[in-house]
Amino acid sequence: MKKCIVLFHGDCDGAIAAGLYIRRFLRDMYPEQIILRHSHPWRLNIDLKRVLSEPDIEMVVLVDLALSEDNIQPLLSVAKGGTSIIIIDHHQSSEKTLNQLKELDNIKILWAVVQSTPQVLAQSILRNLNNYENLLVNVANICEGGNVEDENVRIVADKVKLVLAVEPTNIELIHKTVDYIVKGDEFWNAPIFNDVFWKAKWLLNLLLKKILVKAKTVCDWDIVSFTSPESLIFAGLFGIASSEHMKKVKKSIVLIREEEDKIVVTIRSIKKKALDLCQTIMKNIDHKAKSTFGGHKEAASLTIKKVYRLREVEDIVENVIKNSICAEK
User: Which PANTHER family does the UniProt record give (predicted)?
Assistant: First the structure.
């Protein structure tokens, strides 16, 4: 029996987009013929190659994954072999890669630089959204930094974003979220969500306090670093904490965290310079350490192979800010 793999970013807007797509377009195959897999930017190359090598797959749906040029060749090989590929994304950094793939018959691309990936679906192929689906699109937009007047929607968004972020390797939680969406359930009220929420809230508040204490300011940018043990404690909360810190102190931020085999740089910019700063940092890194980067003007991230020590990456980031952003002033 032929099957479809849905590989999605395991965050708020990625899970919502995957759930909405399956709910509307793959419902007749769900769950028996659908293989759910989730990924994150730091391990996308590994997960994508693993997914594309699965046997008896007639369709692969890639959702909210900020594909880079490193992903082109595996996708081309699979598409030329007859497998249908659908790419749904909203990351600005994906544009160059997607332009190289869009001419292939077996690849369909749904992409636009909008607030969230569910928003891409809503303005392209989803028609007559019901109240539940509309709510989820709004929730995803808030998760990605948008605003909404409805306080209840904001509360749901904050909860979903936090819970999915704090346990980025919790397969049951992330895949259950997609399952709830396909079935039309209010997953944010499920026990599996409530059990994690208060832990996530407490950890986020602790992380925000640590950022305030550790921050070093260079030309209106805060630079903050975390060691491997600290990264382990706060897991997937660094992106959310960076955004919250930026809103609170009205300054852009570069958060650098050391992990077991890599260093991750998370950038949030008030003046929409995040993606540009990512690219400039990449240019100042030795080719042996270069990995992947992606995101948007407001929010972007860079993963560096652990050729450098944490302090050395801090110095590179600080010098880039001084030589580019400070120089502009």
Answer: SINGLE-STRANDED-DNA-SPECIFIC EXONUCLEASE RECJ
Q: Which domains does the chain have, with CATH numbers?
A: 3-189 (3.40.50), 203-328 (3.10.310.30)
Length, in residues, of the chain: 329
State residue 264's pLDDT score: 92
**Single-letter amino acid code for the residue at 191:** P
Six-digit token string for 43: 């391990």
CA distance 296 to 276: 9
Cα 273 to chain centroid distance, Å, stands at: 18
Closest C-alpha among 247, 223, 244 to residue 315 = 223
Query: What is the per-residue DSSP string for 141-207?
Result: HHHTT---S-HHHHHHHHHHHHHHHH-TT-HHHHHHHHHHHHHT--GGGSHHHHHHHHHHHHHHHHH
Residue 136: per-residue pLDDT = 97
Report the C-alpha gap between 179 and 288 in whole angstroms. Answer: 41
State residue 329's pLDDT score.
58
d(CA 313, CA 159): 33
Angstrom distance (rounded) from CA 32 to CA 1? 10
Q: For residue range 94-147, what is the model confidence (pLDDT) as tens digits?
A: 998 999 888 788 999 999 999 999 999 999 999 899 999 999 999 999 999 888
**Which pLDDT tens digit goes with each residue over 308-324?**
899 999 999 999 999 98
